[in-house]
Amino acid sequence: MSTLCLCVVIMLGVAACKQTEPPPPDILPKEKIVEVLIEVYIAEQKANRLGIPQDSALMVFQVMKKEILSAADVKEPLFETSFNYYFAHPPEMEQIYTAVVDSLQLREQRAPQSQKK
Fold first, then answer.
1. Distance, C-alpha 83 to centroid of its chain
2. What do you get for the CA distance between the two ends of the chain, in Å?
3. Is the dihedral of CA 107, 108, 110, 112 positive or negative?
4. To bridge 99 with a disulfide, which of 29, 34, 78, 92 should be the other Cys (CB 3.0-4.6 Å)?
């Protein structure tokens, strides 16, 4: 049993260490999806703070998301396909979300006190 566990651990380690391949050409680059995800997250928080029922906030958020994607010149199917691709590749998704969180924290630190309330 311990030999089987050791083999599984070694195989997982080898799989985790393998070189990451670049995403297919029909996927947004990491930098672009980070840029869009930052704006989408901010829009989601704004919609949730409107003090309206959740279903209405979701409708407002969907409109905001479409505007964000349009401003970024990204079609929604491309965004969804790209997000799903990165979601299926955890090391790359971790890099993306690390960049998103770092950027949001930096924005929060730079925001004037009046905007933080």
1. 7
2. 56
3. positive
4. 34
Q: What is the CA radius of gyration of the chain?
A: 19
pLDDT digits (tens, 9 = 90+) for 14-58: 445 555 677 788 899 999 999 999 999 999 999 999 999 999 999
85, two tokens: 């691709």
Structure tokens at 72: 């970024």
Residue 60 to residue 54: CA distance in whole angstroms: 10
- pTM, to two decimals: 0.75
Give the integer Cα–Cα distance in Å for 38 and 23: 20
Question: What whole-number distance in Å separates Cα of residue 101 and Cα of residue 117?
Answer: 19
What is residue 52's DSSP assignment? S
Largest CA distance in the chain: 60
